[in-house]
Amino acid sequence: MSRSLVQPVGQKRLTNVAVVRLKKRGTRFEIACYKNKVLSWRSGVEKDLDEVLQSHTVYTNVSKGILAKTKDLNAAFDSDDQTKICLEILDKGELQVAGKERESQLSSQFRDIATIVMQKTYNPETRRPYTISLIESLMHEIHFAVDPHRGSKKQALEVIHELQKHFPIKRSPMRLRLIVPEEEFSSLSEKLTAWNATIVSKDQTGSQISIICELDPGFYRDCEGLMMKLHGRYEVLALSVHAEGDTVIDQYDDHEDEPSHSLNESSDFDLSKKKETTDSDLLKKELADPVLKLSNEMQKQSISTGKGTVASEGKQNKCNTCNAFVGDSKQYRDHFKSEWHKHNLKRKTRQLPPLTEDECAADVEMDDHKADLKDYSF
């Protein structure tokens, strides 16, 4: 009587492995690899093939342990060298991953694409970049799907073009230094005008003219060819340019204070007349000393009376999204974090007019009621 070991017919072999699959000439071929080693091999980090392959064997089904036939290998690869075929499958094949692992890779690449979009774009109204969370929500609204077989940068450029069709978003210009001979400057100036480039500064040293300009990145290749044609040189100073910081003092002091109209306006006439003379003298000093002007403007924003009225009350900042004045610089920054501004921003993306603060609160409350009713609908 035979004492051979009887194994279950449906036993699964080589299940805890990374499978790389390649279909060629109608036949599927697979190889068994160690987890997290395939990507290291393809990126050039791992050099030892034995650290990548679990065995130098070609299968038609790794999970069932079915080996590939020699005649199929010769028909598909014109060779039966297992190691050589494993190398080709490893380089050209498709890596099979689990569902959760694939979901993690897609979410990571989605985040990378959103980060690239954030770095390369800005809000044309504020000239500042959008937040990463807002970019991700806009990408969800246009139903963007990540392609794991394509580069993140290329997909990010396609996302920017798609977002520009629906939302107020612009590509951040790149800053370049262009140096050309003096006789070629007219040709360069014509091209920059045609490209809607912004010249930041211009300097001439000897027979050469150096300019610093901000240019749309889409014209970079054309600019590179033009500089070669004009026998000039170029230097990339910044890949994307946008406004820095939260607030600027001059931004809130563009307009002079208008005289307030009150019932005792006639009694205040003399005081206002004296104020005009002192303001004119102060203005002359500020023009001579810009540091004095800056300090005076900061004092105007910080001084407040004991009665609760702010001295710079007339210099309120307007939010274009909500179409409302929202106070000084601190209140202006806090406004962008409020539910009122966020709700109006969502309405703006849908081409809807802004709401007042009370209307916004009522609209949000109505949405909450609709959500509660939806839970009880049958």
UniProtKB/TrEMBL annotation:
Domain named U1-type: residues: 314-348
GO cellular component: cytoplasm; nucleus
PROSITE patterns membership: UPF0023
Annotated region (Disordered), positions in chain: 252-275
Subcellular location as annotated: Cytoplasm; Nucleus
Metal-binding listed as a keyword: no
GO BP, sorted A to Z: cytosolic ribosome assembly
Gene3D superfamilies the UniProt entry points to: 3.30.70.240, Classic Zinc Finger, Ribosome maturation protein SBDS, N-terminal domain, SBDS protein C-terminal domain, subdomain 1
Highest taxon above the source species: Eukaryota
Subunit and partners: Associates with the 60S ribosomal subunit.
Protein name: U1-type domain-containing protein
Record organism: Prunus armeniaca (Apricot)
